[in-house]
């Protein structure tokens, strides 16, 4: 139990007393937004178009690419933990602990992203497979060296729980903006006459790489780390103590579980929706509408997240959002005769509900980092964040084929122009009751397992302030 005291901690005052810092404000939010803007110029290009580049330009089999992606995700998970632990054992510099690594590693990351899309004509299939393996693994490793410090940095920019929600919101905004640009402009650059163009892919990689690097520099210049250990303090945490703390961290374990099944549901919906609108509704044009609506719901939710969190708390706001989503998808299951337009209209409400959890997830992570410090007395932002990232990537690797397995299990046959009634019913079930049940499960996790309410976060901030003062 976190005991409340009469002391208050001012957010603008860092742990170290020999540094003058700017007060937290809009500058930090914009700077943090640019971080994921830069991340997703690279990440979205790779995740959206690399498969078709490998199969259509390199001529590599889809099966080989699938194995490569699986191996890469598992390797990335290990790289996340290793890099997070490495950063936590370094002394902070005058610009903090995390910002310097974003500055140092962003250019190598951008270069590696360009290397992925270099095509040397006339080489053997074995050469292309080897080149793909090396460059993709290299890119993933370097991505960890930027993304881990970037994600960890949110917990040291401010200790105010509500403002951390604002940072998470701006991070989501940056990711969405990059996604809109790449998915909107990218196909125009990389495809010629409806065919993948090697030169087009390289041009896109260079253009988005330059934009990515500019965003990273903006993140570095505009963001300020305020919660910084004294420069003379040598990290004393042992890995064994860290692991014990992580295993005792109930908020971390519960939010990790909720995040993993949310991610699996998102992957399932993304796969099943193609078959839902193609076979069940016979309206593939509606897929683009769904994609636009999903983005719009996030932008509608963004300006109201902070006021809701300020009044009710993160846990409380996300809980209501997930309950709304669960109710909508369960209702959709009970209404199988809807038209595509009616289905999309109701789905938009469900998307709006889970947008709150999606926006706030990174703010939840910063809170569980604080809780780790409360449990162990160790400030290990990089390690805790990388543990969270590690588990998500393992989940991505294991869940990568969930959509294909589910479609196969309901009897889908690509050779048939019209699927059987049972298969169509199965597709509709996968698209409705399954995500409905998952969102309901997340609701229960937040209500019964995640303990950091608005009041407990206030108490936690006060207790941590006292712990830090006692160490001086």
From TrEMBL:
Topology term for the membrane: Multi-pass membrane protein
Keyword Ligase listed: no
Entry GO CC: plasma membrane
Gene3D superfamilies in alphabetical order: MFS general substrate transporter like domains (1.20.1250.20)
One of the GO BP terms on file: carbohydrate transport
Tagged with keyword Transport: yes
Subcellular location: Cell membrane
MF (Gene Ontology): symporter activity
UniProt-listed PROSITE patterns: MFS (PS50850)
Coiled coil region boundaries: none
InterPro entries tied to this protein: MFS_2, MFS_dom, MFS_trans_sf, Na/Gal_symport
Every Major facilitator superfamily (MFS) profile domain range: 251-472
Keywords: Membrane, Transmembrane, Transmembrane helix, Transport
Transmembrane segments: 30-54, 60-81, 101-118, 130-151, 172-192, 198-219, 252-277, 283-305, 317-337, 343-365, 397-415, 427-450
NCBIfam families for this protein: gph
Protein name as annotated: MFS transporter
